[in-house]
Write a structure and sequence with these properties.
The complex is a heterodimer of chains A (195) and B (338). Chain A is an alpha/beta fold and 195 residues long. Chain A has 6 helices and 8 strands. Chain B has helices at residues 18-34, 60-71, 92-101, 116-121, 139-153, 171-182, 211-217, 239-246, 250-254, 276-279, 286-305, 309-318, 329-335; strands at 49-54, 75-80, 106-111, 127-133, 160-164, 186-190, 206-208, 220-223, 261-263. The chains are: A alpha/beta (195), B alpha/beta (338).
Amino acid sequence: MLRALASKLEMSPDRTTILDARALSRALQRMAVEVLELAHGTDDLVLIGIQRRGVELAERIAKLIEKEEGVVVPRGALDITLYRDDLETIGPKPVIGETRIPADLTGKHVVIVDDVLYTGRTVRAALDELADFGRPKRISLCVLVDRGGRELPIQPDIVGTPVKVNGGERVDVLVEEIDGRDEVELVNTGGGIRQ
Amino acid sequence: MKSAVLGKDLLGLERLSPDQIRLVLDTAEPFKEVSERPIKKVPALRGKTIVNLFFEASTRTRISFEFAEKRLSADTVNVAATGSSVQKGETLVDTAKNLEAMRIDMVVIRHPSSGAAEFLGNRIRSNVINAGDGQHEHPTQGLLDLLTIRDKHGHIEGLKVCLVGDVLHSRVARSNIWGLLKLGAEVAVCGPDTLVPRGIEELGVCRFRRIEEAVEWADVLNVLRLQLERMEKGFIPSLREYYRVFGVTVERLERAPRRVTIMHPGPMNRGVEIDSRVADGPHSVILDQVTNGVAVRMAVLYLLAGGRPELAAAAKRATSPPDPLSTSWRAGAMGAPD
């Protein structure tokens, strides 16, 4: 079904490619180097991806670091659904993804990995949830796309690419593991006037 | 408040669609992990007030609901019939209306009368969850049994599940029958004529009169408790005779052509409906049922509490349309196999 949807989306005329597969791969390689610099190596490093596409991106960054450094980087997954601040208004999102924390986070340098940074509310929820798993010595934020539009005082430490998004536009991150191909697209959704 | 996916109340499995049942089971899955965390708590129901209104004795169900509520960060109050105004003659509706006047969000009710939960649900605005009403239904027990069977066998469709013993008095049996049939299992009942309701075959279940036949047929035996407190005299000659004729024993199971999964909703009468060596044996999932109970109840509370559809629609209009790839949960969840 996803493939059918994806091919339907491909035909849609108002999609602009921001990163193609090769550009996305280069961005991830640079991000992996920046993660290593930020964490001063891999000793205390833990990568935590936010469900769903953040988990795949964290996995790729971890593998790139492993290739470079020859050590296994612990990584986990976080589903922030139960920590959202809008259960009342959006209704429950019934299928909640897996949360898998590789070890006690106390004393670790946790790098949160997500696909798109927008309002910052997801990251806020992730920070709250991580606090229930221990007391990391530091938490950093690494995103593939920063599209602006923050509603909370949250900033990324590492950014794959910044994207200027106008009203009525949306950023889609597609990854091979879930969507069948690697791409970042700017989608014109028509009607919206919301900034 | 009405949930978009389950409606306002959870009264029984008879009213749920197969898709709704699967949705609850799928939602229970991630909640299992919450109970394994160092801090066993998520803020999903912060600020919600839930009253556990128990007009009948209960240990497992009441504590399981309370854990589920607390692990979702809801505020809970327990009201038992003894020691409350119920003893002074207050009616069920008056009790509930008074609680509602204190601005509660949900009521979990256990009551000796069949239909009590629905009666209440029709008269108050809060969500009502049936935690067992007379001989009618015990939906969360049915759901946790389904989840436990699915965990153990990987699927429910096509499995042969036999409910053994006191089917007559058992709301657990009714919820199991509805849930199992809806998810495509074959269901049978086995017990003495006095404890199996007449005409039960009309629900689409088969009937065994001898436990040996049930053991030979079944993949799963769900052994029901002999509800001595609901029995006037005359249902069975004696407990010892019942055990001799219908007891689920090691000797009987040894003759089964396949390994039979053993379930029991508790509390067990060891040596009456079930042999201790079976209850504690390698194919017993009785304690898994208890663990799954908390996860299933968290899922039900979460699905009922979450959101008002009209607000959800408004919120959807206000924001840019979500990514169709990530919001295909409906199709995904509904279309998923057992």
